[in-house]
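This part of the workshop introduces the protein records we will be handling. To make this concrete, we reproduce a full record directly below.
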Amino acid sequence: MKVGIVSDHRGFELKQKLIEHLLTQYECVDLGTNDKTSVDYPDYAFLLGEKVAQGELDFGIAICGSGIGISIACNKVKGVRCAKVSNQEEAKYTRLDNDANIIALAASIPLEEAIKYVETFLTTRFSKEERHIRRIEKITFYENGERG
């Protein structure tokens, strides 16, 4: 599994620690930022989103101060379903029900919690239940300018 990870300056430390953990089990691609110098999170969100949407990466992890801004930016990329999660149950259900392909985290999450959320996200399979497929298809249709 190939996982991409990005952060802004506020999420840099958590990103670096998560990369150490991820590399023990996955191919992990660090797409920046590369230090604590102030940056604009949309630049990194768009880069990650495009690589996930194009199939270059299986999943993505995005980190900013609150996790909210970077998740909004990721979701502007066609084909991305990014969820900002605050607990392990949300990490599970965003995959199980929504087939999300990027998880967004707040920079302030303790490392142990972040690892739990990421591991849950990466190991939970989409349920493929008809009702969830139908709902995701409605989102995709709307994203493509269709009404269905």
